[in-house]
């Protein structure tokens, strides 16, 4: 009997030669653009810089590149550090049906594997698509229950990374199945690790990327994995979600329904569970000309996970503020943006933001809860000092597949995040190259010849 892993492996291996539609390629290119937008600034910040320092013996030589400086590193080390960097500024993509950030582990692993193998742009795109399609389906199958204790990007990310690396390293279906089987038993990452002000959360993504590259390399050398590691009685699903995971649904329409076309690209530099409320508050203020001095109270109703994870009304650090719905709603109303500057020290100390955040009452809205996880919605009401009440329901977030960032908006996001690190001209050159990956030569040449090394000068 064919296992779930073997089904995924046959699909992934087939993408080495199967043509991708223009639509799927376009979405893969968008995902890679978005990954660089998050990774470039994250690469010059802790914890990525600290990981590079800790692994100094593995940096300076190797087959892969660190972003944005262009330093050489071993493939697994590059996947680890770039994967960590791309999950640091909280601007990485989301597959909302799976409570999962697919790009950070998948693309970090794909780039490292591409440099190791001398792969070109089309092969990189094929690997990225394989990683998204396999891991997005696993994430959807095991959630929302998995998310109670496990960080999906850390766990399911191992499968995305392994599938991507397997395609790029030219593993056949049998080898790819063993890579996925080995990745399954490497998968871990606790929710508790990112509910504290620690650096573990971005490390989750980096570790998943590293595990995927390692699993693929081991499988290519003949190391075997458990092929029933997903659906087995002591496997990933049973251990980390429960006995009722619908694995048949998880492989249904594989290669027909392309989940990469339904990825969310963030419009705010904060946890995705706050975005709908931020959008709704901004809409109310804009539509009604509200100024903060008129606001007496703010009611923000969303789903239970939003309150559970982002209910801290008095964040102290930038990390905590990114996971605070009251803070982020106040920031959009005071400063007009919840981009990176909203978490700078002056913003964190802004008495206007703090005073307004104290007026936010965050609750669970039954309708929003019923729509979760298929939709990330919020219902916000702002009450003024003179008793006027203004309400807005955001059924989704700006950036979600039903309200997507246009290519122009995604490019603007890319420049906003990368220009301060690379310079506008160099960032523009990199963006042009990424927008033409379907015709690009070796990925290693793209990374070495693009603007990236200028960041280290």
TrEMBL record:
Residues 8-244 form the MmgE/PrpD N-terminal domain. Residues 268-426 form the MmgE/PrpD C-terminal domain. GO terms for molecular function: lyase activity. It comes from the Bacteria. InterPro entries: MmgE/PrpD_sf, MmgE/PrpD_sf_1, MmgE/PrpD_sf_2, MmgE_PrpD, MmgE_PrpD_C, MmgE_PrpD_N. PANTHER family: 2-METHYLCITRATE DEHYDRATASE, 2-METHYLCITRATE DEHYDRATASE-RELATED. Belongs to the PrpD family. This is 2-methylcitrate dehydratase PrpD. It comes from Thalassobaculum litoreum DSM 18839. The lineage of its organism: Bacteria, Pseudomonadati, Pseudomonadota, Alphaproteobacteria, Rhodospirillales.
């Amino acid at each position: 009997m064919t296992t779930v892993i073997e089904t995924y492996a046959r699909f992934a291996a087939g993408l080495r030669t199967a043509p991708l539609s223009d639509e799927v390629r376009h979405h893969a290119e968008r995902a890679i653009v978005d990954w660089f937008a998050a990774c470039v600034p994250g690469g010059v910040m802790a914890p990525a810089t600290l990981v590079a320092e800790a692994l100094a013996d593995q940096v300076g030589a190797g087959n892969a590149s660190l972003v944005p400086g262009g330093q050489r590193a071993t493939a697994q080390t590059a996947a680890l550090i770039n994967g960590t960097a791309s999950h640091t500024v909280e601007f990485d993509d989301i597959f909302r049906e799976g409570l999962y950030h697919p790009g950070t582990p998948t693309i970090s692993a794909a780039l490292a594997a591409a440099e190791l193998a001398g792969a070109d742009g089309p092969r990189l795109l094929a690997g990225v698509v394989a990683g998204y399609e396999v891991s997005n389906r696993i994430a959807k199958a095991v959630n929302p229950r998995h998310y109670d204790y496990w960080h999906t990007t850390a766990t399911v990310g191992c499968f995305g990374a392994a599938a991507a690396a397997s395609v790029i390293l030219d593993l056949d279906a049998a080898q790819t199945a063993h890579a996925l089987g080995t990745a399954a038993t490497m998968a871990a990452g606790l929710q508790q690790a990112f509910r504290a002000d620690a650096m573990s959360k971005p490390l989750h993504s980096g570790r998943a990327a590293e595990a995927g590259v390692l699993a693929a390399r081991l499988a290519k050398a003949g190391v075997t994995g458990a092929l029933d590691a997903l659906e087995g009685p002591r496997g990933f699903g049973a251990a980390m979600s429960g006995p009722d995971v619908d694995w048949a649904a998880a492989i249904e329409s594989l290669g027909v329904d392309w989940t990469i076309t339904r990825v969310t690209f963030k419009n705010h530099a904060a946890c995705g569970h706050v975005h709908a409320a931020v959008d709704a508050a901004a809409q109310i203020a804009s539509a009604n000309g509200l100024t903060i001095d008129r606001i007496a109270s703010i009611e923000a109703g969303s789903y239970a996970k939003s309150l559970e994870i982002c209910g801290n009304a008095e964040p102290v650090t930038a990390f905590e503020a990114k996971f605070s719905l009251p803070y982020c709603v106040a920031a959009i109303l005071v400063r007009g943006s919840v981009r990176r500057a909203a978490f700078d020290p002056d913003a964190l100390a802004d008495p206007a933001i703090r005073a307004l955040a104290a007026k936010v009452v965050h609750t669970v809205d039954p309708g929003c809860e019923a729509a979760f996880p298929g939709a990330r919605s919020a219902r916000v009401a702002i009450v003024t000092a003179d008793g006027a009440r203004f309400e807005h329901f955001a059924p989704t977030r700006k950036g979600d597949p039903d309200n997507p960032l246009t290519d122009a908006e995604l490019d603007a996001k890319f420049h906003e995040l990368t220009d301060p690190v690379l310079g506008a001209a160099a960032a523009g050159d990199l963006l042009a190259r990424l927008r033409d990956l379907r015709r690009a030569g070796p990925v290693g040449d793209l990374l070495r010849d693009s603007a990236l090394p200028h960041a280290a000068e």
